[in-house]
Structures are given as structure tokens and as C-alpha cells.
Write a structure and sequence with these properties.
337 residues, mainly beta, Immunoglobulin-like, 2 domains, 4-stranded antiparallel beta sheet, 4 helices
Length: 337
Amino acid sequence: MGRPLRRRAPAVLAVTIGLLAAVAPGTVRAAGPTVSLTPVGPAGGKGYFVYSARAGARITGQVAVVNTSTARGTVLLYPVDATTGQTSGAVYLSRARPRRDVGAWTRLPTRRVVLGGHGRALVTFVVRVPHGVRGGQHLGAIVAQPVTPLHRYGVKSGFHINVQALTVLALQVNVPARPVQRMMVNGCRVGGPHGYQTIFIGMGNTGNQFVKGSGSLTVTSAAGRQLKRQSFAVDTFLPRTAISYPVVLTGRPLGPGHYRAAVSLTYGSGRHLGRGLGCTVSSHSIVQVFGAANAAQVTRAGGGSGPSPLVIVLGGAALLALGFGAAVAMNRRAPRV
């Protein structure tokens, strides 16, 4: 199987508050160039780079760094690794995280460029695929980070937001090997943020290919009575990564006790995985999720009313706001599988 499966917590490259900036007094705004990255050459035909190369190969490519604004400024360039996000999907690690895969293989002789308004620069990079590397698909990225001063507003409020806008261009390297699509499910636990009882399913990709898929979770009581059945989607899942995938339970929450969780996954080119797991809901997790004031009600009734519609609406709005902010401030081109 090669290297053991590694758990790598994703570090989001861009902290963005796009919609909240309009309502939060104390936001911090960045002034400077707005940058895009464009792949140059046939390897960038998908809008990001895809190379096929054997172990020991040397790849040379070029990327166009474009200032789409009128502001003059300096742009930092650096490579990073990718991993699987908490809810699946490819995410890119921060500059501070150790590089072990494509990010470690990539060298940028030019790490800093100065661009005038609507300026453009061609930057060469080199990817050296190590000898002895595992076959299959690998993913990293080239990141452009404008060097901009931060302007703080509403300081008297005591609340401020740091906005860092980054542009990420995916860099995929396919090393020849027999394609292996293989997922695993290895456990579950119950917890979740305030008001949202969640089952976290341990899953990982032990193959050598990116996979997508869908799944379902069925929860039954110790006596075999079905209590929950929910479906979920699995976005791009990178090889040799593992996550605790969160499934937020709807309806009446589960009270303290022992349950059976049946997880079914369909992924890749029609592959299927089914796994039965034991899950325990502790009194501590009830207090953690619903608070001490509501814990007795959940325990006594073996369930409760769950979050109010208003909480659900506000929670959904907040998620949409954060998602929109990320889309605005982080221009990411990533592989599709």
C-alpha cells in the first residue's frame, strides 16, 4: 500500500469575510493589486496544470501572473501541497505547512514580481518528480499572494477582520501506475457544534486516484429500529488522505445510548463500500451540543425538537456568507474528477 495513510488537517489559504464586511464595524481592508494566475502551454488546457511524468522526471512550465487592477504592487509566489477538506473536496495548505508532495517537488526561481497597473509577467517553474515516489495522482498548487498594507476601519468597536486574498492555480502530476480506487470507513463518533448533533464518519482514500461519490447513513437503535436515514455527497477525495466527514442529523436528536450506524458509499467508477459501525451518544456529548439547560429534555425524551427553524435559517445564511466570501477572495482553479 506504500506510505501509511496520513491525517492532515486542512489550513485554509484565504480567510475571507466578503459579506460580513458590509455589516461588521471594524473590518480590515487590503489595498493593492488584484492578481490572477493563468497556465501557459498545453498542460494548462483545463484551466490548471496536468502533467504525466515518471519518477525522476523534470518538468518545466510557465504561469502568467496578471494584475487585473490599476494598483501597482508586489506579488509573492510559492508552491503548496493539497489535501482533502473536512467535508471532502480538494483544499490547499498554507505556506506555513510542511510540503511533502507536489509542493515540495516544485521550484520557483522567481519568488517575487512587481506589477504595474494591468501588468503581466511570465514566471517559469520546475517540477522534479522524486525517484521512488508512489504511482498515481498527486496534487499541489502555485499561489500568488499580493503584498498589501492592511487598512483598519472601526477600531473603536474592538472588532476587526484580517482579509488575505490569494490566488491558487492547481498543479496535478500523474505518475504512471495501475489505477487503484479504494475507499475505507473506519469508525464514527457523535458530537457537533452548538445545536447541531453530528455524526462524524471516519473515511479515507487508500488508493492512488482522485475519487468522488455519494453515500448514505442509516442509524438504528440497539433493538434494530431505524431512527435516521440521510444521504450525503463526497467531493474530490485525494489519495492517502483521511477525514472525519460530518453528517448533521436532522429531526429529533439521538439521546444517550448505543446505536448502530450503517454507512454506504458509491464512488469512482461504480465501486461500492458498505460498513456497519457502533456509535455511542454520551451524556457529555448531549451537553456539549445542546447545552446543560436542554440536556435533561433530550435525555428524558430520548430526543428533542432539534434546532429551531430560525437557528437553521441563520446558520444557513452564515454558511452561505462564508462560502460567498471564499469564492470572492480566493480565485482557485482545481481539478475536476
